[in-house]
Amino acid sequence: MAVMMSCFCWLTAQKVISGEVIDQQTGDPLISAFVEIEGSSVGTTTDFDGSFQFSVDRDPPFNLVVSYIGYDEMVYEVTSLAEPHRIMMG
Question: What is the DSSP string of 5-54?
Fold first, then answer.
């Protein structure tokens, strides 16, 4: 039973979303932009090259809320976890 439980936890923890947040005009990465699943507290901030990655607790479709100082908050629709997402703000 313990083996089955650990397998179940491993399988459910494999849903990961990744991508980058960039300025639409310049193409520059937005460092420390906040990315979270809409209606939850699950999310992260982007790193020094605008990249993010975090585990998700649901299957697509769902929305991400992306915010960054000096930019309007935006909602980005996620329809797949298969490849990195390129989110352009501005």
Answer: HHHHHHHHTT-EEEEEEEETTT--B-TT-EEEETTSS-EEE--TTSEEEE
